Amino acid sequence: MIRSVARPQDSAWHRAHITRRRRTWIIMTGVICAALVLAAFGYFGTVGWTALGEAIIRTTYRLVLAYGIALVFGVSIALLVGWFSLTDALFPIFDVLQNIPSFALIPFFIYFLGYTDWMIILFAVSSITWPILFAVLAAIKGAHKDLSDAATIFGARGWRRIPYYLAPLSYPAILTGSIVGIAIGWESVIGAEIIANTSGFGAFIKTASASGINQAAIAGMFVILIIVFVTNRLIWAPLLVESSKRYAE
Amino acid sequence: MALALSRVSARFDDAAAREVSVLKEISFSVSTGEFVSIIGPSGAGKSTLMRVILGLMKPESGTIVRNFSKPAMVFQNYALFPWLSAIDNVAFGLRMEEMSRKEREQIAREKLKEVGLAHLEKHYPAMLSGGQRQRIGLARALAISPDLLIMDEPFSNLDTITAEALKADLLKIWRTYGMTILMVNHLIPDAIELSDQIIVMGAHPGCVKKIISIDLTRPRDTRSEKFFKQVDRLTEDIRTIS
User: Fold this and answer.
1) What does the pLDDT average to over B173-188?
2) Cβ separation of B93 and A5 shorter than 8 Å?
3) CATH classification at residue A214
4) Are B61 and B49 in contact (CB under 8 A)?
């Protein structure tokens, strides 16, 4: 009988992870200190915090909804493409499509949906979907042939291949695709809000900048940075650590 | 007869999209309950042959008679599902057979015990050593009660001590279950120690060069004169062929 030998955590990876975590904390401490110093000197005195809070909540709500739709849409398409073994055939087509500058599509979204919430949300979906789709496609395409054969031999055939093999196989890719997708999503939602000029943080900074109050935009940036940091520390970082441990070779 | 191949040839596209012949007119048969080893140099298409036998790849020509209903495979690189714990990996095939959780976990625990890893059922593959992973792979294969067990160089990534222990377990399991085993191997003494029949393959394209029956009595004494003579004879045969 062989005794349990839990593999020690890969030391290089562990060191890199600690360094990266430390660097993130240092940057965030710097950001918060800068905000506090500016606040102490009364820099944010003219900022309408209630309006800013409402704008950021609206933007975050749009982003979360867009991410949810993009996640379901991107993962479903990638899994179906992987299931039908069409990755090689469709990869170049997806590559061409994702290279169309997303903001070039905004007139179409406005034409069909007007200056509405759904225009902003679906426009963001069109940007967030790509990194998720490509990450999952690459994970399926790059999976070791033996793993795919094992799934087939032990019965993950037909539709069962999706929930029992392709979906769990894609989990680390879904995480990384989501992180990149959400970063792009902030840009898309705020960009669309600036163009639509209806509500949300984009519209808020547009109005604030037009009135010459740039403090409001800077305060908003600080708040968004903190939201991104907290989301990263509370959601993505633990999931990434768990996934890299479990999916390690 | 568990398996019979008659003039089976296979091709696939290489990296430059050129058609390459990997197997050429392969013919051999395996009796039910027999332990057969396939040995040959790199490029002999041994792994491709296993995939063709399992129906994972279509042959270009030839006939394959498969008198087995439940094949299982143990992989050189273990091919365990990293998202599943040891027990869930072992129970994977049973889950696909829609067996109840209670029943499949009971069988999986029995198999883990058989391969000496009952205490590691909650561990994930990344937490296990190579030898432990290979034992989980073996338990996963045994869990579905296969009538044909295909093993693709199962010992090649293991250290000598682990490989020896696993080999002894494999022989015990084979005697207990009486299943047909087809094993790709590259070590001549291992092939002689384990097999009833050895198929020697040549490379580029893969073809059967010789089929040798091993009639040494079991259990085989790997230090006996007869054993060493058999190893010498087979080594010489392979040298002549290549």
Assistant:
1) 91
2) no
3) 1.10.3720.10
4) no
- What is the total count of domains within chain B? 2
Same domain, B84 and B140: yes
Instruction: Please state the pTM of the whole predicted model.
Output: 0.85
Domain range enclosing B119: 78-146
Determine, for residues A246 and B124 on separate chains, whether the beta-carbon distance falls below 8 Å.
yes
Res. A7: pLDDT tops 60: no
How confident is the model over B203-233, as pLDDT tens digits?
889 999 999 999 899 888 889 999 999 999 8
Distance from CA of B28 to the nearest CA of A (A): 23
Q: DSSP letters along B134-178, please?
A: HHHHHHHHHHT--SEEEEESTTTTS-HHHHHHHHHHHHHHHHHH-
* Option in B96, B126, B162 nearest A154 (CB): B96
* List of chain A residues whose C-beta atoms are within 8 Å of the C-beta of residue B124: 246
Report the amino acid identity of residue B119. H
ipTM value, please give it: 0.92
The verdict on residue A22 lying in a domain is: no
Query: Which of B111, B115, B129 to mutate against chain A (most A CBs within 10 Å)?
Result: B129
Q: How many residue pairs from chains A and B have C-beta atoms closer than 8 A?
A: 84
Residue B237 pLDDT: 83
Instruction: Please enumerate in sequence order all residues whose Cβ is within 8 A of that of A9, keeping only pairs 6 or more positions apart, or say none.
Output: A245
Q: How many domains does chain A have?
A: 1
**Within a domain: B221:** no
